[in-house]
Design goal:
The structure holds two protein chains of two kinds. By secondary structure, chain A is mostly beta strands. Chain A is built from three helices and 32 strands. In chain A, the strands form eight sheets. Chain A has a five-stranded antiparallel beta sheet with strand order 2-6-5-4-3, with no helix packed on it. Chain B is elongated and about 65 Å long. The chains are: A mainly beta, B mainly beta.
């Protein structure tokens, strides 16, 4: 009995013990495998002569990828594709727009149309195109070096742009923001807090809020073209439309976002507030007032008495609020906030008579009756949740809504009831 | 994982008295507490562990059932849930040698997603848990025992931190985050336990 028990016992014991010893000896240390993924912008250097010498090519129409801004020109829609070029669509029937041409303009940010001339930026240059026949577009002028802030070295003609890039790394030195892993032990509070403070210190140094290069935003008023980029308001004389002349540059501070012309005034939305400039002498815009508010992203629309400003929170807009502000601008030198309304995530706005259309980003599209500015939230008419929207243009034939998924047009002849006419969707997603 | 589900389902099936063989199987319980020891970048670590095994005595030597418990790695709480098997070499003696294997999952159910004031999101996920143990079982009554055991335990775990760049970031899409760091950690433990079996 004893031997029959002892033999398998010893055998099993030896096996189990040696197995455990093997496991213990080989890997008793905790294994840590860390991957860091960064959304960052990688600088891309470019010689100016490479794009100046290359022809601007008019290509056959191609599908929308990342629509930016829309201009309505007669029966045509011009849709910018930031960094890539401009789509031209035949919109004579808003229920079925037709993709005509694509102007390939590398490094473009925005555009404006003056009579039959289209202006667009091409990295550091301003281009003018004759679009009197949208079927056959011609470049008529290149005004050079008017957006010099893209230069990294103006003497050698090198410009720098930034490309969104996803970087994956397993190098522990790449870590910048985390508080560090919790210590998986209880005897360890001191070292944990040390790791915490050193990581936090490194974090502040490496932080950067890139905003996709410096892309200008354009508007036209009184025979002059105004462009705003991150810091500056630039003025061009376009009284002779085919020959834009760069006049001057006005520094506006930082985080300039949008520009809206109204009755001889320029309303400039920035991350910190709204600037009002008097452009009654178009070559010499004069500062009238600055309305400061919390830091966030904010487009502006205006009617005779009121300015509507949206404040939006987003990663690039620092700590923002999601609100619609109504400002009394009867005295343009002294704009006054009269009421603010909470919103979901407002982006662009469009004003048509007493109706305000508001793009709520992923939350859809809202319409309000703003005849009584003190009661806007009680006069919400519609909330179309299915249309993710970024910007809205009340056009002569249709209300045009731009969103991440494409461009939709609505019949708004009855402003109380929007009716979808057509949607052009982007090529993927 | 499929294998684990199959065993899980089989155990449930057998637990039903009408499906089990002729005579009903007797229940058995084994609760243990002890210490997990391991080494990390900072040196050795010692953590608390508790687990309980509830199962059926398939025969005089073999028992099969579920293991549930709590492993406290510093401030991190992991709840292991596993299938377990216990086998006794010499059930007729007062001092018995036994072994066991547990396979399952460690859950971080008790660890919520945290968003710091700098909008840094941190979330944690559990993972595979497996352990093999041998021990001594000392008879104190007809079917009551004290146990002393030594085990080797592996526990997988993930910690992810990120700063979102879109409004509703998807935790599994690094593109939605301006910064995204993922730590895959495997705890390798040598475990010392005392317990009671009845």
């Amino acid at each position: 009995m004893k031997t029959s028990l002892q033999q398998p016992f010893q055998w099993t014991m030896q096996l189990v013990l040696s197995l455990m010893l093997l496991l213990v000896v080989t890997s008793c240390e905790d294994q840590v495998e860390t991957t860091y993924v960064y959304q960052t912008q990688v600088p891309v250097f470019l010689q100016v002569n490479t794009f100046r010498e290359a022809d601007i090519i008019i290509e056959p129409g191609k599908p929308l990828d990342n629509p930016g801004k829309i201009y309505i020109f007669g029966d045509y829609l011009f849709i910018s594709e930031p960094g890539e070029g401009i789509h031209i669509l035949d919109n004579s029937n808003p229920a079925s727009p037709r993709n005509l041409n694509f102007i390939n303009i590398p490094g473009t940010g925005d555009m404006a149309i003056n009579e039959n001339i289209l202006y667009a930026d091409n990295y550091v240059d301003l281009l003018a195109f004759d679009i009197s026949d949208p079927q056959s577009i011609e470049m008529v002028k290149r005004e050079e070096d008017v957006f010099p802030n893209l230069y990294s070295n103006e003497e050698t003609g090198t410009i720098v742009t930034y490309k969104d890039t996803l970087i994956t790394s397993t190098d522990a030195n790449m870590m910048w923001s985390s508080w560090g892993r919790p210590a998986f032990r209880s005897d360890f509070m001191i070292m944990e807090s040390m790791a915490f403070s050193s990581d936090a210190g490194r974090g502040n140094g490496g932080q950067s809020y890139g905003q996709g290069g410096s892309m200008a935003r354009f508007t036209l008023l009184g025979g002059h073209l105004y462009t705003v980029d991150d810091y500056d308001l630039r003025v061009f004389n376009v009284e002779e439309p085919t020959d834009p002349q760069y006049l001057k540059n006005i520094n506006l501070g930082w985080g300039i976002e949008t520009i809206f012309p109204f009755k001889g005034k320029l309303f400039i939305g920035s991350m910190t507030g709204m600037h009002i400039y008097d452009a009654s002498n178009p070559a010499e815009p004069q500062k009238m007032a600055v309305y400061e508010h919390v830091t966030s992203c904010d487009p502006v629309v205006v009617n005779d008495d009121y300015a509507f400003v949206t404040l939006r929170s987003a990663a690039v807009c620092r700590m923002g609020a999601d609100e619609l502000h109504v400002l009394d601008i009867k005295d343009l030198y002294n704009p006054r906030l009269i009421k603010s309304y909470p919103m979901d995530n407002p982006h662009g706005l469009g004003l048509s008579g007493d109706y305000l259309y508001l793009a709520e980003g992923e939350h859809g599209l809202k319409s309000f009756n703003v005849a009584d500015v003190m009661e806007i939230s009680n006069n919400q008419i519609e909330h179309l949740k299915d249309y993710a929207s970024i910007d809205i243009i009340p056009g002569p034939k249709s209300l045009i809504v731009i969103g991440p998924d494409g461009v939709c047009q609505f019949d708004y002849s009855d402003p109380e009831k929007l009716k979808e006419l057509s949607c052009i969707s982007v090529s993927f997603r | 994982m499929k294998v684990i589900y199959t065993i899980f389902a089989a155990t449930l099936y057998l637990a039903c008295p009408s499906n089990s063989w002729g005579q009903a199987l007797s229940f058995t319980h084994h609760s243990e507490m002890g210490i997990l020891t391991g080494r990390d970048d900072f040196g050795t670590r010692t953590n608390f562990t508790f687990q309980t095994f509830n199962g059926f005595q398939l025969s005089e030597r073999h028992a099969f059932g579920f293991v549930a418990g709590l492993d406290q790695y510093g401030s991190l709480s992991v709840l292991p849930i596993a299938m377990g098997w216990r086998s006794v070499l010499n059930p007729e003696d007062n001092w018995q040698l036994y072994g066991g294997v547990d396979l399952g999952f460690g859950s971080t159910l008790l660890e919520p997603t945290v968003v710091t004031e700098w909008n840094e999101h941190r979330w944690q996920e559990g993972g595979f848990m497996g352990q093999a143990s041998i021990g001594l079982r000392i008879k104190t009554g007809r079917a009551n025992f004290w146990t002393l055991s030594l085990a080797y335990k592996k526990q997988k775990y993930q910690l992810t931190t990120g700063n979102p760049r879109v409004n509703a970031p998807d935790p599994s899409r690094p593109e939605d985050w301006s910064y995204y760091a993922n730590d895959k950690i495997t705890f390798n433990n040598l475990v010392y336990r005392v317990g009671y079996w009845f």
